[in-house]
């Protein structure tokens, strides 16, 4: 059985269509757990008009989406679990297709999604992909949310002892990251989930400071030294591992425009500098953040022995000045030194796309 958890607050405009899109699935063995988070509009009255024994209804004081999802988790009975926003829609065969993706050690299956507006008009497309557990945290640092929670169907066992923390925004991000760092995923290349963007979305209207606080909260709840340790591999030298972890974190955040947060990681790295190689790596990463790419090339290029990390960031410096051939050389060298290092692999992808980007799927060119 599939458990569908729907937290809802003042959802009178869309909740009926949302619930019906789940009731009309080609898979009938489902339960819908609706948690009314203290709605003050006609949400409850609308839900009372939908009669189906598969619906379980709960009501709580307004505590936020995280608390509503946690309550839903306590009451679900399914072997598979998904969280569905109260204004989004699922295509009729969504669950049937997601279930086909479970095999071997797959912990969760997810899909692409079509973006729609208040009047069900398509306004965009969210294309996802599989990210290996070892690469999830790095992806979050450099890009952002790796998967949209609404598109995901989880095995029940991967959610044991998991809960949502009550952030003002982004409770889904931390929840997904914690699971994705431990469990393999499978991706369905189809828009099975219709995500509605409108003026009432909870992520709209938040300041830069609130977004920065959100990201810092996730980082603080993640052992980033442990997550980056396998990437860094400094032969058991804990301080050198921490130094590089702090600088990699700082550079990643700064490259996303979070300059203040990035520099804070640089500041915490200063006491960890013990020798000239540490100092040079610090200065090279600082030059990248400050967009002094020629200086970064000079500093990283001056290392007598270049490990996979130096090779990667030397490649990034060359890529930033559009020297594609030398960037390719250093990304390739990084992967020769450490074949499972995900960052230069993604940089090779970016390098290729900057020159020419070909999609296997070319349906749009029919029109």
TrEMBL record:
InterPro entries: Glyco_trans_2-like, Glycosyltransf_2, Nucleotide-diphossugar_trans, TPR-like_helical_dom_sf, TPR_rpt. Its EC number is 2.4.-.-. The keyword Glycosyltransferase applies. It is an enzyme of class 2 (transferase). Keywords: Glycosyltransferase, Transferase. GO terms for molecular function: glycosyltransferase activity. Residues 3-122 form the Glycosyltransferase 2-like domain. Belongs to the glycosyltransferase 2 family. This is Glycosyltransferase. It comes from Mesobacillus jeotgali.
């Amino acid at each position: 059985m599939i458990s569908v958890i729907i937290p809802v607050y003042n959802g009178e405009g869309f909740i009926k269509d949302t619930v019906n899109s789940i009731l009309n699935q080609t898979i009938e063995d489902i339960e819908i757990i609706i948690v009314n988070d203290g709605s003050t509009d006609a949400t409850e009255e609308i839900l009372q008009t939908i009669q189906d024994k598969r619906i379980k209804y709960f009501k709580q004081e307004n505590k936020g989406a995280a608390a509503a999802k946690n309550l839903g988790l306590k009451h679900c009975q399914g072997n598979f679990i998904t969280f569905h926003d109260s204004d989004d829609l699922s295509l009729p065969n969504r669950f049937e297709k997601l279930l086909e993706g479970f095999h071997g050690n797959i912990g969760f299956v997810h899909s692409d999604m079509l973006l729609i507006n208040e009047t069900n008009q398509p306004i965009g497309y969210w294309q996802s992909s599989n990210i290996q557990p070892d690469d999830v945290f790095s992806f979050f640092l450099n890009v952002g949310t790796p998967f949209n929670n609404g598109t995901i169907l989880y095995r029940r066992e991967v959610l044991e002892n998991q809960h949502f923390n009550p952030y003002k925004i982004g409770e889904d991000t931390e929840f997904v990251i914690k699971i994705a760092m431990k469990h393999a995923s499978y991706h369905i290349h189809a828009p099975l989930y219709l995500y509605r963007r409108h003026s009432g979305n909870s992520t709209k209207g938040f300041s830069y400071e609130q977004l920065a606080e959100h990201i810092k909260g996730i980082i603080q709840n993640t052992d980033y030294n442990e997550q980056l340790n396998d990437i860094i591999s400094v032969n058991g030298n804990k301080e050198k591992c921490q130094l590089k972890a702090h600088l990699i974190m700082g550079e990643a955040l700064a490259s996303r425009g979070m300059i203040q947060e990035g520099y804070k990681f640089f500041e915490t790295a200063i006491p960890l500098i013990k020798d000239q190689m540490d100092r040079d790596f610090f200065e090279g990463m600082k030059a990248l953040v400050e967009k002094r790419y020629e200086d970064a090339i000079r500093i990283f290029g001056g290392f007598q022995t270049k490990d996979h990390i130096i090779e990667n960031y030397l490649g990034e410096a060359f890529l930033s000045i559009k020297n594609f051939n030398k960037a390719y050389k250093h990304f390739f060298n990084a992967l020769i030194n450490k074949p499972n290092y995900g960052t230069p692999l993604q940089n090779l992808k970016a390098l290729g796309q900057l020159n020419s980007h070909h999609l296997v799927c070319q349906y749009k060119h029919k029109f």
